[in-house]
Amino acid sequence: MADQQMHHWRKISKEVEFAGTPLRGDLDADVVVIGAGFTGLNAAIELATAGTRVVVLEGLDIGQAASGRNNGQVIPHHSKKSPSEFAALLGQKRGDIYNEMVANAPLRLFEMIRKYDIACDLVSKGWMQACHSLEALKRAQIFHAEWKAFGCEVEWLDSSAIAEKIGGGDFLGGWKALNAGYLNPYALTQGLARAAAQEGAVIHTRSMVTAIEKRGNGWFVKTADGSVRAAKVLVAANAVAGHFWPSLHKAMIPVRVYQIATASFSQDVQRKILPGREGVSDTSRDIRAFRYDSTGGLAMVGSHTVWFNAAERGKRKVMHRLTSLLPQVPDVPAAEYWEGVIAVVPDKVPRLMELAPGVLFAGIYSGRGIAMSTVWGRNAAQILTGRLTDSAMPMPIGGLQTVAGHGVGVQVARFIHPWHRLQDRLDKRA
């Protein structure tokens, strides 16, 4: 999510903005981190607290890409699969490691927010997955049962219970994860950048990496106006990774999403809609997830059909999707509308790839990165510095893993939204 506009989360952020400067000249470091999103900043904090000289290079200002512009939901659940399905995919041992990471990642993030006193409007009242069809309801029952058996705090919600908790909708049921929540993602990026700098990391913004070159026993990471020489490089740039490494962009599929934010609701409306202040995602293929923001309005995210900015039309059209679900919401244009890009992979498993000896890539969370990046970035930093082996991760470290049929996948992602919406309608009739 990448243009440098005054988007909604930035407008209402209470965290002091990080004052970054472009890299000018040449620096030396032990590790260069490319990308100051959640993964890169968590890695930088881990590296700096361990005494490693770390330089972070961010192509934009802090919080202007996907990390700072998403819906802000902190979710302890996989994107599509159940815990047992991930165990089957990764093997039981590594599957258990991954499931533990997913289950506990929100709690680790909440600890970071408390430790560094980050003013990101954290609300940790849980997250609900609402089911739009009988098939989705059956899947949700599996999710609930397996996470409960795994030791997680979850509860089942029948149709009346979820209607009461949401304040509307025609959902057939769902489940709730208690160790979950939501926050202002832009404010979180600012707070993490502040924390990394406090710990000793050097952060340069507006310093887009143009090349990574091998020289002797180390690497030179180049920008337009400078370079950093280091022994190790951590690449933590996802959907806007650029082309500084051959074919890296083919490791992920960019998916366009939109978001709206409503005006503040009256106290009467707030008592009726999400009175418990949980975050919500539904199971439809046509993505729909929403939660309150700090102003008392709702922020909703969804998938986009084509690649263009449709701000004024979007404020009306997308708002209609919300009012059709929640009749108590005033049927007026949304107060804010913005678009952006997230990175996804078909199997929904984050990537940990050795691009070359000493160059590690970490990231691609397929829409579930706020919580996972906390542990993924930290662990990637520990692997890069030899304090952790890949045996502690859900998968062995491999080489560059590109998406098969990448070009076709990109086009499908751009235009599959109408088909998903039709499938959702057919599901409800089944």
From TrEMBL:
Q: Where in this chain does the record put each FAD dependent oxidoreductase domain?
A: 30-382
**Gene Ontology molecular function:** oxidoreductase activity
Superkingdom of the source species: Bacteria
What InterPro entries does the annotation carry? FAD-dep_OxRdtase (IPR006076), FAD/NAD-bd_sf (IPR036188)
GO cellular component terms, A-Z: cytoplasm
Q: Which keywords appear in this protein's UniProt record, sorted alphabetically?
A: Oxidoreductase
Do you know which PANTHER family this protein is assigned to?
Answer: FAD DEPENDENT OXIDOREDUCTASE DOMAIN-CONTAINING PROTEIN, SARCOSINE DEHYDROGENASE-RELATED
What name appears for this protein in its UniProt entry?
FAD dependent oxidoreductase domain-containing protein
Per the UniProt record, the source organism is Pararhizobium polonicum
